[in-house]
Structures are given as C-alpha cells and as structure tokens.
Amino acid sequence: MIGRLFYLARWFFRARFLGRAAPLQTVLFVSDVCNLACKHCNILKRDGSAPRSKSYGQIAAELEYAHGLGSRFVDFSGGEPFIWADGAYTLNDLIRQARRIGFFSATVTSNGQQPLAGCAADSIWLSLDGVGGAHDQIRGPGTFAKLLANIEADFPSRGRRRLSVNMVINRLNSGAVRDTVEFAAAHPAIESIALNFHTPFPGTEALLLPPAERRAIIDELIRLKKAGLPIMNSVSGLKAMRELNFKPRCWISNFIMADGARLAECPGRRAGLCGQCGFCMAGEMASLFAFKPDTVFSGLNLRVKRSNGC
Ligand SMILES: C[S@@+](CC[C@H](N)C(=O)[O-])C[C@H]1O[C@@H](n2cnc3c(N)ncnc32)[C@H](O)[C@@H]1O
Fold first, then answer.
1. Of 113, 80, 83, 94, nearest to 26 (Cα)?
2. CB atoms within 10 A of CB 297
3. Protein residue whose Cα sits closest to atom 5 of ligand 1
4. Where do the domains of the chain lie, and which CATH numbers do they carry?
C-alpha cells in the first residue's frame, strides 16, 4: 500500500511539475470478439469484417510494453474478456501475468453474461445500461436477467473482489438514469456505479444525447452524488464533463486496441470526437491533474483501496 502511494505521488510530481506525460493506466482490448452486439458499441464491427482475438504471447508482450511506459493499472476490455481464450490460456492467466509483471491491479470490463466466479481480477466492472427493458433494448433480450443472475451467483465473493457497474447514457436509456443509480445503490453486491455518456463513433451517431439533456443529467447526477448515492464519478469530474471545456489529460490512460494499435490516448481522440466526448474518465483525469481533492480521493479509493484478493 505504501509502495503504491509512493509510486503515485512520484508519478504525479513528475507529470505535473516536470512535464513527464507517462500513462498510469492501460486499457487493453484482448479481442473484438463478443457474445453481444450492443447498439451503441464503438468496438463492434459494423462493416462485416471478421473479429480478431489476440494470442496470449501478444497480450503478454503488450503488458510488458505498458508496464515499461510506467503504467501500473490495467483494465482488460474487448470484445468480451470473459470469453477470451488462447488454447488453454484464459482471462485469469492474463490477470496473473499482469501481476507478475508488476501491475498494482487488474480490472475487467464485462457485459456479465458469463459466470463471474473464479475471476482473479481485483475488480470487475459490469456494463449496466438500465434496469430490465432499458438495458435489454441496447444489449439484447434477456441480457439484464442474465447479468443479474451472474451478479447474484457471485455474491459470496463480496469483499474478496470489488464489483461495480458502468452505465453509458444515450438517447435510448436517458430516462432510466435515476432508476439505474438507485438500483445499483440498493443492490448489496454492487459497490458503485460509474456514469458515462455515449460517444458518437461512426455508425452510432444517432444515439448521441443533445447537449442540454446531457447537462441536465449531469446536474441530476451531482445532486444524487451529494445525496450520498454510490456514484464513482467525482463532482469535479462531472462538472468538467458538463462543459467539456477542460484541457484534456487523457494520456494518463493508454490504449492497446484489438488490432494491436498502441495509442497514447483514447481512440475517441483519434476519431476526432473530443468535442462530443462521453468517457467520463476524461473529466476525472483532467480534475486529477488539477489536483481537485474530491477527484484525488475518489481516484485513490478506486486504485489504492485493496480487495482481499482471490
Ligand atoms: C466495448 S465494451 C467491452 C467490454 C464488454 N463487452 C462490455 O460490454 O462491457 C467496454 C465499455 O465501453 C462502453 N462503450 C461502448 N461503446 C461506447 C460508446 N460509443 N460510447 C461510450 N461508451 C461506449 C460499453 O458500454 C462498455 O461499458
């Protein structure tokens, strides 16, 4: 714990005062193979081309590369990480390899359609885009029920591994935000909810929320957060996302895409979408860099607080 705090303090000092723009976290896409075809997804192939899945060796090399840049937190994404396999290797082998290399923690972002039991990650982020039909209209019939069943079957792991949910708000589910936050707050297995907005990658532009509606939702989220609901976003980060007028510090995360592309910043930037960005980590990173106390606190809670390991 002390070692991690020291590393983070040193990273911040070097980034803030010496101008060393080194990533602290890595989003690593293990594949773009998925068991769902979500309407808003920026990874889903809409051009009919075949999805790709990386080998264990490729991912191990990518982990070494990211660690060498200074990154210490890795999030495995996809595609669907829980269905990734290379021969006998599974997701848990990637997680263990990340720890061997020296990452402080490994998280997984998943659609929760597979059993979660036995997952070796420090924390799991499950995508929850509404309650019941609000979720299913985006992710497919029956996906909410399956997600819920898998969360409940995993309940005995509570305390050994952190479990949170992530909602992406778009035109289809913008009326379901409050219900979803309250659902997450009431569920004993769910620690917190992160809120993001749709980012209009090609083929998904129609789901973008009008700016006024987005601002009203952010105001509501700030009220809910201040009322004590377990919203992971910091108030400062939400305010930054409300106006989108901050200087981006998105190099704090690097991205290793399903095609192996190694990006120093978010794929949204490569697509020219910063002006319509919905990835709330952008606001969190800008507020972290500005040393906003609430963002620093929520970042430490997210990254340094220990699970008991499993
Ligand atoms: C691409 S998915 C991959 C992991 C997993 N299959 C899942 O559904 O969570 C990772 C996260 O990106 C979010 N996402 C996908 N497309 C997005 C978009 N256009 N704008 C904002 N977030 C998006 C998803 O909702 C999900 O939370």
1. 94
2. 11
3. 110
4. 20-35+48-110 (no CATH), 112-232 (3.30.750)
Q: Is the CB of 113 under 6 A from ligand 1?
A: no
**Does residue 41 line the site of ligand 1, with CB under 6 A?**
yes
Give the nearest ligand 1 atom to 80 CA.
6
Location of structure tokens 């495995």: 76
Q: Say which amino acid occupies 111.
A: N
pTM, entire model: 0.95
Which among 41, 80, 146, 257 is the best mutation to test ligand 1's pocket, defined by most ligand atoms within 8 Å of the CB?
41
Ligand 1 binding pocket includes 253 (Cβ within 6 Å): no
One-letter amino acid of 121: A
| N-term to C-term CA, the chain | 17
Atom 15 (ligand 1): residue with closest C-alpha? 41
Copy the structure tokens of residue 168.
Answer: 């992406």
Query: pLDDT tens, position by position, for the chain (310 residues)?
Result: 788 999 999 999 999 999 999 999 999 999 999 999 999 999 998 888 999 999 999 999 999 999 999 999 999 999 999 999 999 999 999 999 999 999 999 999 999 999 999 999 999 999 999 999 999 999 999 999 999 999 999 877 666 789 999 999 999 999 999 999 999 999 999 999 999 999 999 999 999 999 999 999 999 999 999 999 999 999 999 999 999 999 999 999 999 999 999 999 899 999 999 999 999 999 999 999 999 999 998 888 887 765 443 3
CA of 77 to the centre of ligand 1 (A): 9
